[in-house]
Amino acid sequence: MLIVLNIFLVIFSAVLTALAFPPYKLFYLAFVSLMPFFWVVYRARSYRGALGYALLFGLVFYLLLLCHMIVLAEYSSLLLIILGWLLLAFLQALFLAAAVLLGKFIQRNAVSQNFTGVIWTLLAYAFAWVFFDWLRSLGAFGFTLGGLAYSQYLFPEFLQLARYAGPYGLTFVLVFLTVFGGALAARFRPASKAEKKIWLSLSAALFVLLSLGFWLSGLFLTLQDIYLSVNNDRKLVTVFQPAIPQKIKLDEAFRPALKKSYLEDIRDFSLHARTDLLVLPETILGEFLLHNKEFMFALRDALDFSLVFGIPRQGDADDGRYYNSVVLLNRYGGLTVLHDKRYLVPFGEYLPFKPLLYWLVADTGFFDSEYSAGKLDNNQNSGYAAAVCFESTFPYQLREQIRGGGKLILILTNDAWFGRTALLDLHLSFAVLRAVENNRYVAQSANTGRSAIVDNRGRILQMSGIDAKEFLTAETVLLTEKTVYTYFGELLIYLALVFFFLYFYLLLYTKGHSR
Length: 515
Known about the structure:
Nitrilase/N-carbamoyl-D-aminoacid amidohydrolase; alpha/beta; 5-stranded mixed sheet
């Protein structure tokens, strides 16, 4: 009976956590949703039990969060998409399970038998969670979707912590609060009167600390608005969402009509509106437009402002590679390549292990040619930091460009692959975190949505609908001040390593002296 209750609580916790993410505006659930899960894990008597509950939680959570991937079956085999969905969810659950096992080990091998040992345990679960959350973002198959921090993109008072500790700082706070609640529920009833007093005192202290932190953050936002109101380095930015259905965009027969449509829309906007910079989405057309002189001259003649757009780009003659690039065309006709996409989508822009796997997708023709990872960034001269689609989900990619001189973040994407699903809102949540982390305004242009302009505090100034042709305009401030996070990166991960080094040192020390 207890096992059934535990399974129910773990599944309930996973569902609540998934509901904290877009498109639901229930971000506050993340402050409590993990408590039932940690109550079960904290009381688990064996590593096997803790591992099983962690895998169950991870599978349910990631399957719910990634279920929208099924819409990709429109472009590939339904069986392959389902297998990919299940495999991806399982792989992400493994990282979560590893974090829980590490926390469980420290819980069962406490360096102290008094309440100090409990605090070590609570910190261990939180540090282990963020450490493995960071690990899963690394490498060619790095993945960040499901990071708890991104559930908070509509909570600007809490988001400001990311200026100092990045997304993992937010995740650490959420995990620590919920593991604290789970442990409190597990230990409070059988605890002694002295321990109960400690628990109640710590609970009150955490409540006061959080309330004070949110109040100070709100005050900080108000003061920042006053500061920005006297800052004169501004740029009027417009993002254009053309709302072109993906199948039309992929069909070569529609390319002449799409070129004409782009030119007409841009020319009409230039005649009837004012802006300093117009941002178009990723890969506006699937051809090497820079080689099309007629189109480029017509585009230049249509402009009364600078234009940024995404295109496939062919490397130099001796290069022979293709890049997914971001290009700036200024109002005088000057052309600058701002960025070549570095972090490519596995199984999207290139096929890993191609000699082994190509036969599975040969009929689609998607991988007959592939993009190469780029190395070009032009932040110092242009003042822009750019990301293409998937890249915006990795904090280090844009942080490097801000350190290189980027004053405004531009994100160009094409999420039309995912229809009208929640993945469009999930992608936007990453743009919000990148704005706060680096103290920069963000302009995100998507083909069908979500396009948006976000201020340096993570507040969404303008946001598009889905599948609607829209021009969104807002005044941005070109900032140069860098945050602690921009300078130093993942300080919390270094702190986690110090914590675990210190724990294992103390564990070996105490065991050595107990002999």
